[in-house]
Amino acid sequence: MNGLRSAVLPGWGQVSAGHPIRGTVAGILDIWLYADAAQRTWSSIPKLRRTAGALETEVASQQAFVEQDAANYAADTSNTDAKGKLVADKAVLRSLQDSASKSRGRARTSADYRNCEAAWAVGVHLYAITDAAESAWLQRGGRRPVRDMATAAIASALIPGSGQIYNTHYSKAALLYCGVIGAVVSYQSHQNMVVFWQGENARAISDSTSTAEIQQELVFFRKRRNQYVWGLGLIYVYQILDAVVDARLSRVDQPFPISISPTFSDPGLLVTWTF
User: 3-state class of 123 per DSSP?
Assistant: First the structure.
């Protein structure tokens, strides 16, 4: 029942299970992520795209003026008025092209944030459901079985999260997959932004407009993309160690697998690891 409560309203199940702080944090975070993603989807992004579309229409119109000016000047290269109009219209065109690029970038950036927020919201929601159901199970007398450390480590190494499931720490597995889902979607979304700004950079070079701000955006999104790759690597290592520790704690009444004893025949320490 608590799992269903958290499915309806993130955090409700945790509050019902006697974890008000955990439930409140999960609920506020998830609702905020869902709300902001929805606001961007139905309000901010469409407005930004309309603005970008209007600027692109102006660019096309100004391009036609520049082409006409170029034809007039080519017909009479001694006409200083035609030359001046061509120079002025080219300056306006470059300004419009720069504004259109920035506007497209704002729309794509807002969509990028929306994608990341939606992924993290879904992940947190799944965690809230699983955590609430697990808390209810433990309250009803559920007990975690004794587990083998080696099996937990191998399972986590082969399939991330399976060690936590093997240890019956389902909420930890859900939290792990929350991080994996969020990181993978965020990585892909940031990679799409890198591709977008590379296209804008090529367009700016073709249009003879400034590429300084575009290069800054490229560097920013490349760094953010790479951070998620490192994050996934850290998650992978952590979940193996976490599975091993939980398996060891399930055998707390048994001797610790690592022992250190002095050696006297050849002075030193003997480390024994029973795994």
Answer: helix
Which residues, in sequence order, are bridge partners of residue 260? 271
Report how far residue 250's alpha carbon sits from residue 167's, in angstroms, rounded to the nearest whole number. Answer: 8
Mean per-residue pLDDT over the chain, rounded: 85
What CA–CA distance (Å, rounded) separates 108 from 100?
A: 12
For tokens 């240890």, the residue is 167
Of 56, 57, 63, 39, nearest to 103 by C-alpha is: 56
pLDDT of residue 139: 81
SS3 76: coil
- Residue 145: left (phi > 0), alpha (psi -120 to 50), or beta? beta
Both structure tokens of 264: 């006297």
Q: How far apart are CA 152 and CA 167, in angstroms?
A: 7
State yes or no: pLDDT of 145 exceeds 90.
Answer: no
**98 in Cβ contact with 209 (< 8 Å):** yes
Is the separation of the CB atoms in 219 and 235 below 8 Å? no
β-pairing, 258-263 vs 268-273, is antiparallel
Structure tokens at 186: 């965020």
Pick from 255, 218, 209: which is nearest to 98 by CA?
A: 209
Banded model confidence at residue 266, pLDDT cuts 50, 70, 90: low
